[in-house]
Design goal:
This protein is an all-alpha fold and 531 residues long. The chain has 22 helices and no strands.
């Protein structure tokens, strides 16, 4: 009984260490890895590489998936590109097995980890910011190896009671049963990495034959996708599509790996005799993940089309969904919020372009409040739940810029109620040309990049201000001379002020968007033209 309790405690310490280490790694490397994902996913193949590296670094395929969903929702990458990251994340998650096999079993670091855990704990308690995070990373790493040692101690006698009579056997039915057992272990433990570590311990102690351990690992690959699929209930379409794609990818990989196992059993046994059974199992785990990626990669676009057919998206006319699941990752949540800001800006700009353009179509501007206001209200509620850490200056600045954008978009919605000024501006020869230029800048064909719109507005602010100043002076002189009535003078003056305010809001939205993109994508200091 005591051996079982020691083994369970070891599993618990391993899970705790994985959680502490993963969260600290994600906080420390998250912004840089997020930029890596955003910049190096131009093709599915590059997405595979970035997804594998990101998952290997932060030790969490779920965190990588959350980042990717945020990029899809923000429009930074397409769904086929996101699939490349999903393939890579499944490869990167095998890195934990290599750590356990090459470092945990070969070097036996449990005793050293005990002393290092004391130093790491003091670092966590006596420091803040980056140093404290590094302490958490080391502490999680230490707990991982201490837990691994306890698992080995607790399961050292497992070969005495876990006899072949207690295992399903190595026949077809037995292998299917082992896959089901591996799936169940992953669902219960909520971590395929920890489940693989348990199987590695049982394998190294002689309690499981290699072929049964390999079958269990195949089932574990599917188990982690079911957990993710359940977690997406009530989430956005992008999150659900990604979870469905992950499930289908691992089902396909399992369909490849299971029959393959029957053919590679003898080579695996030979590798185990030379390098150890744990190394042979990790090689098999990584190998069938790589093989699955190679099979799926050439058909990524067709695969994406199938997933989108199974879980269709309503298209760009509908605002992007703000997935509450993304709130677990500040950067991903900010990316999602940015996607909504871009959608709302384009909707508002297009409505103004139609109203101020040659057709003078006011219908879209009239319906703007009903269409966009609920989305902006949801955006503000969502952003209120984003807890950006103070020591992450890039995300803090991006959060502030997004709040400014939301405020200027709200002001544009309020100004859309003063549609009576449009007719006044169109009837005035002095304001007609600026109005046409402004409508052209906001047209859907040119309003794809908000920072460029902001730069155009900034260049014309002073020329338009001078023109309107001279025109107001002329109107006042004309009113004194009896050329214009008092009512005409006030209407035209108010209309120019209205137009100036709209132009100001558009310019600030574009300028702040440059700041958001710089902070979230590249992490560099924005240029002076932003403010």
């Amino acid at each position: 009984m005591s051996q079982i309790l020691i083994a369970l405690g070891g599993i618990g310490l391993f899970l705790l260490g994985m959680k502490i280490m993963t969260e600290a790694l994600r906080e420390e490397a998250g912004p840089n890895l997020r930029r890596l994902l955003a910049q190096f996913t131009s093709t599915p193949l590059r997405g595979v590489a970035s997804g594998a590296v990101t998952t290997a670094v932060i030790q969490s395929s779920s965190a990588t998936t959350v980042m990717t969903v945020g990029f899809v929702g923000a429009g930074l990458i397409s769904f086929p590109q996101a699939l490349g990251v999903v393939y890579g994340a499944n490869i990167g998650t095998t890195f934990t097995g290599w750590i356990v096999s090459l470092v945990g079993f070969k070097l036996q670091l449990g005793a050293l980890a005990m002393g290092l855990l004391f130093v790491a704990s003091l670092t966590m308690l006596m420091s803040q910011g980056r140093v404290a995070r590094l302490g958490r990373i080391v502490a999680g790493f230490c707990l991982l190896f201490i837990g691994l040692d306890l698992m080995q101690d607790g399961m050292s006698g497992a070969a005495d009671w876990l006899t072949p009579e207690w295992t399903p056997g190595t026949g077809l039915a037995g292998m299917v049963a082992m896959m089901a057992l591996g799936l169940a272990m992953t669902v219960v433990m909520q971590s395929s990495s920890a489940a693989v570590a348990v199987v590695l311990v049982l394998l190294s102690s002689g309690a499981l034959p290699l072929v049964q351990a390999a079958a269990a690992v195949i089932g574990m690959s599917l188990g982690t996708t079911i957990t993710a699929l359940i977690a997406t209930i009530g989430g956005s379409r992008a999150m659900q599509q990604t979870a469905i794609a992950n499930l289908m990818f691992n089902l396909g990989t399992m369909a490849i790996a299971f029959p393959l196992l029957m053919f590679v059993t003898v080579p695996l046994e030979g590798l185990a005799a030379r390098s150890g059974v744990d190394t042979a199992l990790v090689v098999f785990h990584t190998g069938f993940k790589l093989l699955g990626m190679l099979v799926f990669l050439p058909f990524t676009h067709q695969f994406a089309a199938l997933v989108e057919w199974l879980r269709p998206d309503l298209g760009s006319r509908t605002a992007p969904e703000l997935d509450r699941h993304l709130l677990a990752d500040d950067g991903a949540a900010l990316q999602a919020a940015h996607g909504v800001v871009i959608w709302a800006a384009r909707e508002i700009f297009a409505a103004y372009a139609l109203a101020l353009g040659p057709d003078a179509d006011l219908r879209r501007l009239s319906a703007l409040g009903l269409r966009v206001t609920p989305t902006l209200d949801n955006l503000k509620d969502y952003m209120a739940q984003i807890a950006v850490t103070r020591d992450n200056s890039a995300e803090t600045a991006a959060f502030a810029a997004l709040m400014h954008q939301a405020d200027h978009l709200t002001r544009l919605l309020e100004q859309s109620q003063n549609r009576r000024f449009i007719e006044v501006l169109k009837a005035d020869a002095v304001t007609q040309r600026p109005l046409r230029w402004f409508a052209g800048c906001l047209s859907p064909q040119r309003a794809l990049e908000l920072p460029k719109i902001g730069q155009r507005m900034a260049r014309m602010v002073d020329p338009f201000a001078q023109r309107f100043k001279r025109h107001r002076r002329g109107l006042l002189l004309g009113e004194h001379a009896g050329i214009y009535t008092m009512q005409d003078t006030f209407e035209k003056t108010d209309a120019m002020r209205w137009f100036t305010r709209i132009m100001h809001h558009v310019q600030r939205i574009g300028a702040y968007d440059h700041d958001v993109q710089t902070r979230l994508r590249y992490g560099a200091r924005p240029g002076s033209d932003t403010f």
